[in-house]
Automatic annotation (TrEMBL):
Cited Pfam families: Anticodon_1, tRNA-synt_1, tRNA-synt_1_2, tRNA-synt_1g
Taxonomic path: Bacteria, Pseudomonadati, Acidobacteriota, Terriglobia, Terriglobales
Gene Ontology biological process terms in this record: leucyl-tRNA aminoacylation
Domain of life: Bacteria
Keywords, sorted A to Z: Aminoacyl-tRNA synthetase, ATP-binding, Cytoplasm, Ligase, Nucleotide-binding, Protein biosynthesis
Protein's organism: Telmatobacter sp. DSM 110680
A GO CC term assigned to this protein in UniProt: cytosol
Motif, 'KMSKS' region: chain positions: 588-592
Location of the Methionyl/Valyl/Leucyl/Isoleucyl-tRNA synthetase anticodon-binding domain: 670-798
Sequence positions that bind ATP: K591
Protein name: Leucine--tRNA ligase
Length: 834
C-alpha cells in the first residue's frame, strides 16, 4: 500500500507545499538593484481587470509570460516581472447597483481573490511592486500628468459630437466603438450626442506615432498595420473655392488636386458652417439637412458610414473654382463627414467612384480630366481611377503627369494664397471625459470669476468620495455629492465647483508599467533613473484586442513623458507578443457564451502545473487555442510519467557523485544524451524568440519517452550514474519554466542545491547533440559523381540541399537545369540534369 502511494504523482500535496515555501521567500521573484551587474530583462503581461475570477485567457497569457520570466532568471538576467490591477471601470459600479457593495470594496475583494488564484497557479510575480490603479497613490499621478498636459496645451475642453453608450450611460472614445457598438456591450448601438468634453491632444504626436512604427520591428506586422491605418495619414491639398455673391470661402481637402478641372460640384457636410448659415433663413433647407444628419447618424450607429446610400440637396448657390473661375453648384451631401479634412469636398465624378455614383443619381455633369499616360491606349470608361495618367481639359496644366500637376497646382495655390499642401490624419484627439463615478477625478475647478482653474499640485490627489449613491440616472454621480462639488477657487478663494467628469480608464493603463519600476514613490510618478534602467520593456504579452486602444495610448503617453523630461526612451515596448484566444465548443470562451472553464476547477482536478502546461501545449501561443479537457488530463498523465521516472532513478542520481563511474558510455547512454542535448537546443531557441512552446512541450515528451523506453537498460546499470544524473537534472530544469511546482519537487528529490530559479539554464553541447552521420552517394543522370554526409534519419529536403551544395556536383550542374531530384532517403540521391 505504502509503496503504491509513493508511485503516484500528487499535485495536491506537492503544489501547496511549494506555494508555502515560496510565499515565505518574497524576495524570490524580486528584481535586483541596478548595480547587480547582470543584464536586465523586463517581461510584462497586460494587467487584468479585477472582475473577481481569472479566466482561461488569463491563464494562457500569464503562463506564457511566467515561462519566459523563469527562463530569463535561469539565463542569469535581472528580471522584472510585476503584476497589478486595472481597477477602475464600470463593472464595479454595476456591481454596486446590483448588490449594494461600494465599488472600492467590491474591487479590493476581487483583487484579493484573484491574487490567491495567481499564487495558487505559481506565477512568479514580484508583489512588492503591485500597482492598483483605483488607489489614490496611483491615480494621484494620473491627475498630475493631466495637469502637466493642460499646461502644455495637450489637455483641453471642447464641445463635440460624442459616442454615447446608453448601457454604460457614458461617453466612449472612437476606439471603444466597434462596428457602431459599445466595446463592452456587443448588442448596444452607440448614439451620437453633443457634449463639452475633455480631450488629450494625441494628434500632436500623429506623425511621430506613425514614423516610429517603423522602429518597432519586434512587433507583429499586423499590429503595426492596424495602427498605421488607425492613424490614417493622407497627403493632399487644401483649396478655397469662392462662393458666388457671398463673402464665405469653402475650403476643401483633396488628395487629387490634379483633378480639380473635373470638379463639377462642391459638396458640404450637413454640419458645415456655410450650411448652417444658409439654413438659418431657409426652413425648407433646414428640414432637409436635418434628414441628412439623421441618415449619417444612423449609418454611423450601424457602423457603415463608408457605405452610406448617397443623398444630397442642392443649395441653389454656386462655388467658384479658383483655378478656372468656373461656377459649380454647391450641394449638401450625407457622405461628406464633418470631422474629416475640412468637412467639404470638390466632387470629381469622372475620376472618383463615390462622386460618380452621386453625379449619376442627380444628373451632375461628368468630365474627363485625366487620360492614360500611353497616348495609344484605348479611352477608358469613366470613372477612370488612375494616378499615373496625364492631364486633359485642364487649361495650362494639360499634358502634365498627375504627379507634376499636383505639385504645380499646389505652388499656384500657395502663391495666390487660396490653398496649400496639407497632411490630414484620421486619428482624432482622445476624448477622456467619462460621466461615471469609478475613475480618476479630473483635477479641474470651474470658477465663475476665473473660469477653468487647475487644482494646485499640493492639493493632489483629488480624492474620490467614498460615500456615494450610485444610480442609473444620467450625468456623473459625482455631481450629486455636494461635498465633492463645492470647493474654494484656488485663485480667488471664492466659491467654485469641481469638474465631475472622471478619466477614461485607458489613462490608467497608459503608464502603469513605469510605476512598477518604483511603485512606492510618494514624490513622483517614478524615479527617472530607475525607469531609464528598465525601459523599454523587453517583452510585452497580451491580447490582440489591445492592438489599437491601449497600445496607441501608451505609446502617446511615453512620448509626452519624454517631452516632460521624465524618460529618455521614445517607445515603451521593444517586443510585443499577441496571443490567440481561448476557444471552446467553437466560440470564444466567455461568460456571455456560457462556455467558461474555471481555472480553479482545473487546478483542483489536475493541479496548476497541468493547467499551465496545457495552456502552452495545446496550440502555438499566437494561435487560437481550442480548449479540450481531455488535453489537460493528458498533460497531467505526462507529468505523472515525469514524476515516476525521476523519482525512480533519483537515488542513483543522488549517489552519482560518490560512485566512481568507470562504466564506459554505452550506446544507450549516448543516444539518451543526444536526445537530451537536442531537446535543450530546441527549447533554448524557442525562448530566444521562436516561441513554439507547444513543440517545446512535445520535445520534452519525446525525451521522456526515450527515457522510459530505456528503462530496462537504466535499471540494469548500463547507463553510468553520472549520466543518469545529468539526464534527470537537465530534464527537470528544462521543464521548470512550464511546470514550476513539479520542477521544484523533483529538483529537491534529485538532491539539487538551491532554488530551481537560481540554477543556470542547461547548455546544449553541439557535439553531443549531433546525429550520427551517414554517407549518401550522389548521382547525376544515374552516374555516381560524389558522396555527401548527412545526419542519419535526415529527410529528403536535407539530403537534396546537401547534394546541391556539394562542390563536384556544383561544377557539373553549372549552367544547366536540374529538372528533377530523386531522393531515396538513407540510400541515394539522383539529379536529372539537362
Ligand atoms: C477630389 C478627388 C478626386 C478625391 C479623386 C479623390 C479622388 P483619404 O485618402 O481618405 O484622405 N474627402 C475629403 N474630405 C472628405 C470628407 N470630409 N468626407 C468624405 N470624403 C472626403 O481621402 C481623401 C479624399 O476623400 C479627398 O480627395 C476627397 O475626395 C474625399 F479622383 O477630392 B478627393
Ligand atoms: Zn476663482
Amino acid at each position: 500500500m505504502a509503496e503504491e502511494k509513493e508511485l503516484r504523482y500528487d499535485p495536491a500535496t506537492i503544489e501547496p507545499k511549494w506555494q508555502q515555501r515560496w510565499a515565505a521567500d518574497p524576495g524570490m521573484y524580486a528584481a535586483e538593484p541596478h548595480s547587480c551587474g547582470k543584464p536586465k530583462y523586463y517581461v510584462l503581461e497586460m494587467l487584468p481587470y479585477p472582475s473577481g475570477q481569472l479566466h482561461m485567457g488569463h491563464v494562457r497569457n500569464y503562463s506564457i509570460g511566467d515561462a519566459l520570466a523563469r527562463h530569463m532568471w535561469m539565463r542569469g538576467y535581472n528580471v522584472m516581472h510585476p503584476m497589478g490591477w486595472d481597477a477602475f471601470g464600470l463593472p464595479a459600479e454595476n456591481a454596486a447597483l446590483k448588490n449594494n457593495t461600494p465599488p472600492r470594496e467590491w474591487t479590493l475583494s476581487n483583487i484579493a481573490a484573484m491574487k490567491r488564484q495567481f499564487e495558487r497557479l505559481g506565477m512568479g510575480f514580484d508583489w512588492a511592486t503591485e500597482v492598483t490603479t483605483c488607489l489614490p497613490d496611483y491615480y494621484k499621478w494620473n491627475q498630475w500628468f493631466f495637469l502637466r498636459m493642460y499646461e502644455k496645451g495637450l489637455a483641453y475642453r471642447k464641445k463635440s459630437k460624442v459616442n454615447w453608450c446608453p448601457e454604460c450611460a457614458t461617453v466612449l472614445a472612437n476606439e471603444q466603438v466597434i462596428d457602431g457598438r459599445c466595446w463592452r456591450h456587443e448588442d448596444t448601438i452607440v448614439e451620437q450626442r453633443d457634449l463639452v468634453q475633455w480631450f488629450l491632444r494625441i494628434t500632436a504626436y500623429a506623425q511621430e506615432l506613425l514614423d516610429d512604427l517603423d522602429k518597432l520591428d519586434g512587433w507583429p506586422e499586423k499590429v503595426r498595420t492596424m495602427q498605421r491605418n488607425w492613424i490614417g495619414r493622407s497627403e493632399g491639398t487644401e483649396v478655397d473655392f469662392g462662393v458666388e455673391n457671398r463673402p464665405e470661402k469653402i475650403r476643401v481637402f483633396t488628395t487629387r488636386v490634379d483633378t480639380i478641372f473635373g470638379a463639377t460640384s462642391v459638396q458640404l457636410a450637413p454640419e458645415h458652417a456655410l450650411v448652417t448659415a444658409l439654413a438659418a433663413d431657409d426652413a425648407g433647407l433646414r428640414e432637409q439637412v436635418s434628414k441628412l444628419l439623421e441618415e449619417q447618424k444612423k449609418a454611423r450607429e450601424a457602423g457603415d458610414i463608408g457605405e452610406i446610400e448617397k443623398h444630397g440637396i442642392p443649395t441653389g448657390k454656386f462655388a467658384i473654382n479658383p483655378y478656372s473661375g468656373e461656377l459649380v453648384p454647391i450641394w449638401v451631401a450625407n457622405y461628406v463627414l464633418s470631422d474629416y479634412g475640412t468637412g467639404a469636398i470638390m466632387s470629381v465624378p469622372g475620376h472618383d467612384a463615390r462622386d460618380f455614383e452621386f453625379a449619376k443619381k442627380y444628373a451632375i455633369p461628368v468630365r474627363r480630366v485625366i487620360a492614360p499616360a500611353d497616348p495609344n491606349a484605348e479611352e477608358p470608361e469613366l470613372p477612370f481611377l488612375s494616378e499615373d495618367g496625364v492631364l486633359v481639359n485642364s487649361g495650362e496644366f494639360n499634358g502634365l503627369s498627375c504627379e507634376q500637376a499636383q505639385k504645380q497646382l499646389q505652388e499656384v495655390a500657395a502663391r495666390s494664397a487660396f490653398g496649400e499642401a496639407k497632411v490630414t490624419f484620421r486619428l482624432k484627439d482622445w476624448g477622456v471625459s467619462r460621466q461615471r463615478y469609478w475613475g480618476t477625478p479630473i483635477p479641474m475647478i470651474h470658477c465663475e470669476r476665473d473660469g477653468l482653474v487647475p487644482v494646485p499640485d499640493e492639493q493632489l490627489p483629488v480624492l474620490l468620495p467614498e460615500k456615494i449613491e450610485i444610480t442609473q440616472q444620467g450625468g456623473s454621480p459625482l455631481s450629486r455629492v455636494p461635498d465633492f462639488v463645492n470647493v474654494t477657487c484656488p485663485r480667488c478663494k471664492g466659491p467654485a465647483k469641481r469638474e465631475t467628469d472622471t478619466m477614461d480608464t485607458f489613462v490608467d493603463s497608459s503608464w502603469y508599467f513605469y510605476r512598477y519600476t518604483d511603485a512606492k514613490n510618494a514624490n513622483a510618478p517614478f524615479d527617472s533613473a530607475t525607469a531609464k534602467y528598465w525601459f523599454p520593456i523587453d517583452q510585452y504579452i497580451g491580447g490582440v484586442e489591445h492592438a489599437i486602444l491601449h497600445l496607441i495610448y501608451s505609446r502617446f503617453w511615453t512620448k509626452v513623458m519624454r517631452d516632460l523630461g521624465l524618460i529618455t526612451n521614445d517607445e515603451p515596448v521593444r517586443r510585443l507578443f499577441t496571443q490567440g484566444m481561448v476557444i471552446k465548443d467553437g466560440a470564444k470562451m466567455s461568460k456571455s457564451k456560457g462556455n467558461v472553464v474555471s481555472p480553479d476547477d482545473m487546478v483542483a482536478r489536475y493541479g496548476a502545473d497541468s493547467a499551465r502546461m496545457y495552456a502552452l501545449f495545446a496550440a502555438p501561443p499566437d494561435r487560437d487555442l481550442d480548449w479540450q479537457e481531455d488535453g489537460v488530463a493528458g498533460v497531467s498523465r505526462f507529468l505523472g510519467r515525469v514524476w515516476r521516472i525521476v523519482t525512480k532513478y533519483a537515488p542513483v542520481a543522488r549517489a552519482a557523485s560518490q560512485v566512481n563511474s568507470d562504466v564506459p558510455n554505452s550506446g544507450v547512454a549516448q543516444k539518451l544524451l543526444r536526445k537530451l542535448h537536442q531537446t535543450t537546443a530546441k527549447i533554448t531557441l524557442d525562448f530566444e524568440g521562436r516561441w513554439h512552446f507547444n513543440t517545446c512541450v512535445a520535445a520534452i515528451m519525446e525525451l521522456v519517452n526515450e527515457l522510459q523506453g530505456a528503462d530496462a537498460q537504466l535499471a540494469a546499470g548500463q547507463v553510468p550514474a553520472a549520466v543518469i544524473r545529468e539526464l534527470l537534472q537537465t530534464l527537470v530544469l528544462l521543464i521548470a519554466p512550464f511546470a514550476p511546482y513539479l520542477a521544484a519537487e523533483l529538483w529537491e528529490e534529485l538532491g539539487g542545491d538551491g532554488a530551481v530559479l537560481r540554477q543556470p539554464w542547461p547548455k546544449s553541447d553541439p557535439g553531443l547533440a549531433k546525429e550520427d552521420e551517414i554517407e549518401i552517394p550522389v548521382q547525376i543522370n544515374g552516374k555516381l559523381v560524389s558522396v555527401v554526409r548527412v545526419a542519419s534519419g535526415s529527410d529528403s529536403k536535407v539530403i537534396e540541399a546537401a547534394a546541391l551544395d556539394e562542390e563536384k556536383v556544383k561544377t557539373r550542374i553549372a549552367g544547366k537545369t536540374v529538372a528533377k531530384i530523386i531522393v531515396v532517403p538513407g540510400r541515394a540521391v539522383n539529379l536529372v540534369v539537362k
